Amino acid sequence: MSSITSETDAIEQARKRIASAYDPQLLQSAGREIVDLLVSQLESCQKSAGSVLNWNSPPENIAEATRLLCSGISDVESATPMERIRLLAETMLSRGQNLQDPRYIGHQVPASVPLAGLFDAIGAVTNSVMAVYEMGPWATACENALVEELGKLIGYQAGSFSGFITHGGSLANLTALLTARNVALGKSWKEGLLGTNPQPVIIAHGAAHYCIERSAGILGIGTDRCLKASLDDRGRIDVELLEALIVEVQSKGHPIIAVCASACATPLGAFDPLHEIADLCEKYDLWMHVDAAHGGAACFSDRYRDLISGLERADSMICDAHKMMFVPALCAFVFYKNREHRFDAFQQNAPYLFDPSAPDIIEYDSGLKTIECTKRAAAFGLWGLWSTFGKELFADLVDVTFSMGQILSEKLRAAPDFQVLHKPECNIVVFRYLPEEIAGRKAEQIGEFQLRVRRKLIESGEFYIVPSSFEGIAALRCTVMNPLTTPRHLDQLMDALRKYGRELL
Amino acid sequence: MSSITSETDAIEQARKRIASAYDPQLLQSAGREIVDLLVSQLESCQKSAGSVLNWNSPPENIAEATRLLCSGISDVESATPMERIRLLAETMLSRGQNLQDPRYIGHQVPASVPLAGLFDAIGAVTNSVMAVYEMGPWATACENALVEELGKLIGYQAGSFSGFITHGGSLANLTALLTARNVALGKSWKEGLLGTNPQPVIIAHGAAHYCIERSAGILGIGTDRCLKASLDDRGRIDVELLEALIVEVQSKGHPIIAVCASACATPLGAFDPLHEIADLCEKYDLWMHVDAAHGGAACFSDRYRDLISGLERADSMICDAHKMMFVPALCAFVFYKNREHRFDAFQQNAPYLFDPSAPDIIEYDSGLKTIECTKRAAAFGLWGLWSTFGKELFADLVDVTFSMGQILSEKLRAAPDFQVLHKPECNIVVFRYLPEEIAGRKAEQIGEFQLRVRRKLIESGEFYIVPSSFEGIAALRCTVMNPLTTPRHLDQLMDALRKYGRELL
Lengths: 505, 505
Prior knowledge:
2 copies of one chain form a homodimer.
Chain A: H1 3-21, H2 24-46, H3 58-71, H4 81-94, H5 114-126, E1 129-130, H6 137-154, E2 162-166, H7 169-184, H8 188-191, E3 201-205, H9 210-218, E4 226-229, H10 239-251, E5 256-262, H11 274-283, E6 288-291, E7 316-320, H12 321-324, E8 332-336, E9 375-376, H13 380-389, H14 392-414, E10 418-420, E11 428-433, H15 436-439, H16 443-460, E12 466-470, E13 473-479, H17 487-504
Helix pairs in contact in A: 2-4, 5-13, 7-9, 14-17, 16-17
């Protein structure tokens, strides 16, 4: 046999193995199996039949993931691809964090509407992507439709704003601040920041999400040039002190790239007074940016939309649909009030991407507006959900979970062994468990006790809540991000903290 | 009725509506329906029964996406949620780009292994995310296992390297270059780039992907400071000229943040001589970065791994699993040869995320290493695929598609009315269709003809290929990213180009 023939044979053998991996019948069997497993997992979670967090140490989990990765279908546990797939899927479901359990009251990551994950899966199985319109015509259409409808709900004027979806709030804030930087400092994109003197600054909410300061570090501005605006006693930007800071910075000649407000700020869920900040930005001719990753969805709710009044005056803002619109991660919106800024973040020339024979279509080539070149169809989950249930679903989700923040706060306030550390404005509640034996101790000891109780609680799998810090001392933090969490679960949480606290005393 | 009671009633009503959206039975019915639709779509695509690209203009698609978004289940076409869901899913599948059709021979985005999308869907339906270990213990484990195994295959030394997954090659390159910048210019993270004189530069492959130059723009270095290394006649970095450039830049005192090689470069798929570039980087003490987004997967293939020989000497490199590992977007790896650099991109303090009561776990908190705070479980598709079929599947996929690049090139070379513009090294082939009537015309006319033929071809739905440019004149470009594409399809592609070409003449 000649070497060319054996070469061809080898490729033919490879083609056969590939064909069995691409077999539609395998997709059918595996799809049904996985759907069944997901359904029974969801049922079990909703009934709180298992643990919230399935705790295993990192080395234990990594060893198991590596074993499965390297053992292949020769593994004795699974002789056929379908048996193998079942084993892998069961393992994935049995070792994770169960956000669908109503005792998950943790990070600002929702128990997403399960159906949204299915719409997302249509994109994943077909590998629908964007960058140029041709590659994802329908993904582009869904994204554009959502940008238009959400932008109008936020209060932007139809026809004059622009927006897009990107992979997460950090990237969204980075892109918006890059635009603000390029607008404020004309030549910085091409020439860098080296000749810019006096140094430009960003002014941010004093407890802004860490990604704002990081953006200053990434963009060459420097984290030291991310000045923190002082907060009032409710954790909101103090507008008088903000004005004093602006005046001081401008008097020294430093360009202000942006004033970054929060709606709401991460630590306490405090909403900045956006109209007053917008007034200042207009007065001093400054770019107003709002990180509304969590709170932007209040635009759906008659009950809560006052919290974000003034958001429509922001030059740029971001909102994470994978937070309070209850879709799976990641689906973050960036908006520019003035659509003329939509191409200001980036400039480029990539002839293999952008086709001069169809110049009108460039407007729909997402890659010109986003850091991502290839971008997954991140709009599908939200578009599918909204199109199935209508936007009223998002109002319901905001109303139920925000109201639960109030209820939790009231319960904690009524209990002598708990201390709420702020007046919650939404579904974020920061507190401490302070039984008699602890209440009189030093602040550091009180903080350490919170962390130790929490660790026992979450490793037990009984509830999931997160650590935080208030005035430099550790605290506990809940965000009600599962709409099936009821007041009864909150009572049980408090009892569980008491139980694990007693074990430590 | 008191206002408190009606308030409670309104919340109870909202809870009921939410419960029906979260109903496991709806997930079951919708899941089965969507799996069935995906299977029949896959069968249809594999048989080329429909169009590759379903062409509709952007305004047409956006109008339809908006109509569905705003009409809700009151829509006459769909009275029940399940009818509505079916309508939406069918619409999504009927208006997209069909990468699973073997006549899709377009961008560097694969016809992904359909099963990978199902493993990804487990993450989407359960909303498995990362940032801190607790939130995604199993996602973290899968990512760590993959980083370790892939890093070893690339040739890094076990125990001494580090890596992570991020949302796409552009973000991966940006993060690696941010690390290089912070390492090269000690204070740039905190103090910005303002005091750095003479100006730092990045040296990049002359036809590097646009995201490298963009990174210079984003990072405050400036796109003008992204110097382009000259290429040889095969489109690879010319090492002699590179050395001359390094010497010249260093003699003027400019810090060189990184030398960025490509494996391979986007336009022609040319692989840089990595060992020679590594020798230079060692000689001049420079950070070597390699964009191996497309070619990194050659590490799986005995047949093609020589193309990336020397990759293991790169200080940082990136590789997109959503390219030549055939998983759906986005799943991009970043590697650092020296694990001491793993926290050099970012610094931060976010007490609500990182728990001082468990300091050992910080090593597994992905948010410290990535731009993303909340990150989706982007490892699941690849982990599932690799664990089901073993890593041999990736060797097969590389072997079959790279060999098809050769076959296409030979077919084009043998045809008098086609012109191949380079000697393909992988599955990327750039060419022109040059029938007699066109061959003698001016270069611009020849280029315009390529674009017009392509537009007719892709809007017909018969094949999907992409535009490119070679020596400033438009050309055609194929990347064989569907392993079911056979030599017969390539013959048909050439005939289709002839057919649409004749219509234009």
